[in-house]
Amino acid sequence: MPTVLPMPEPQLLRPDHAAALLAFERENRAYFAASVPDRGDDFFARFDEMLRARLAEQDAGICYFHVLIGAEGEVLGRVNLMDVADGGADLGYRIAERATGRGLATSGVRKVCELAATRYGLTTLRAAARHENTASRAVLARTGFTVTGETLLSGRPGLTYLRRLEESTAADRPPR
């Protein structure tokens, strides 16, 4: 029987995550591009500059970038809250290809939803996923998001989602 490791707790992005974050993005670039827009070559060429800008946005309370760190210090996933305003934010996440299928996305999204309500004082989260991204759509459904409409994501059809945090139930919370 395989050993079950505890799910990593989301950590706010810090400067010392830089090397592991860049490795995560490089190793998973093709995998991510199959279901979400590619970051482009400029992202990698200007990574240090981009990281400084993201950390400044986080310090200003505009965004909250979380990383899920594995046992060896590697980044296994990201769960971000972007464009924080008026009690709401956009949620986005990426999980390393080698870490999929183990509940990491569901756990990470649940925990960041809890942080959004308790630490950041948010009441509403928005998300979107392409129609063909069935795994992301399933995670959003499992974590209390409901479909609100249709959208285009990089020219491809998708769905928009909403989660009202003040309506969360015990079933939406991770087990203790």
UniProtKB/TrEMBL annotation:
GO terms for cellular component: cytoplasm. Residues 22-166 form the N-acetyltransferase domain. It comes from the Bacteria. The keyword Transferase applies. GO terms for molecular function: protein-N-terminal-alanine acetyltransferase activity. It holds the Pfam family Acetyltransf_3. SUPFAM superfamilies: Acyl-CoA N-acyltransferases (Nat). The keyword Acyltransferase applies. Belongs to the acetyltransferase family. RimJ subfamily. This is N-acetyltransferase domain-containing protein. It comes from Streptomyces fuscichromogenes.
